[in-house]
Amino acid sequence: MPTISRFLVTLMAMLTLVGCASNPPTGPVYDPYENVNRKIYSFNKTLDDAVLKPLARGYRYVLPDLVEQGIGNFFSNLDDVTVIANDLLQGKFRQAGSDTGRFLYNSTAGILGIMDFSTRAGMVKHNESFGQTFGVWGIGEGPFLMVPLLGPNNARSTAGLGTEYFATDIQRLVIDDTATSYSLTALEVVALRARLLSAGNLLDTAALDPYLLLRDFWVQQHRTATWDGKREVRIGT
Question: Taking the CA of residue 40 as centre, how many other CA atoms within 13 Å lie in the half-sphere pointing to its CB?
Fold first, then answer.
C-alpha cells in the first residue's frame, strides 16, 4: 500500500502542474525545454542506431513474417486491456464493450492473441492511453518533453505513462517471474522497433530538421487521438 500511496500522490502532483499549462489543440507546440529535448533526442537516436535498430533488423531477418506477425498480435492483444480501461474512463462504453469482446475473442480462439481473428471479424482495433484520458478530463498538455529511451511526449502523456507503468506492475504480480517479465518487455520493444523501421528511415532522410518533424508529428497525432474529431486539431503558429 505505501507504494500505491506514493504513486497516487506523485501522479496527482504531476497532473496539478500539467493543469497549469493548458495548450489548445489548435495552438503551437509548447517547447520551453527545446535545448534539453534536442540533447535527449540525440541520445535516443545514438542508442537506437547502436542497439535497437540492429536488433530490430536481426529480428526481422531471423523470424518468418508469420511468426513476427503473431508476436505483434500477442502484444497488441495485451494492450487492449489498457485500451478497455481508458474506454471506460472516457465514457466510451459502447467502444469498451467492443474492445472487451475483441480481447476475449482473440485471447481464446486466437490463442492468447497470437492470431487476430477479431480484426478479420470486423472488430476495429482502438488505441486509447491514459494521456489521452487525462486530456478528455480537461487536463492541459503541458510542455513537450523528449523522454530518455521513450521518445516524444508531453507532460500530460508522461503522467499517463506513469499510470500505465503502475498497471504493468500489477501485471507483473500475475507473471510471478522477474526474468520472464523483463524478457517479454524486451521482446515487445524489439518487435515494436521492427515495425517502425520504415518510419525511422523516413525520418533519417528528411530534408527538414528531424527533431522538429518528429515533435510536430507526435503532437498532431496525440491531439487527434485525444479528441477523436470532437475538436479542431492542428499545429498553430
Answer: 16
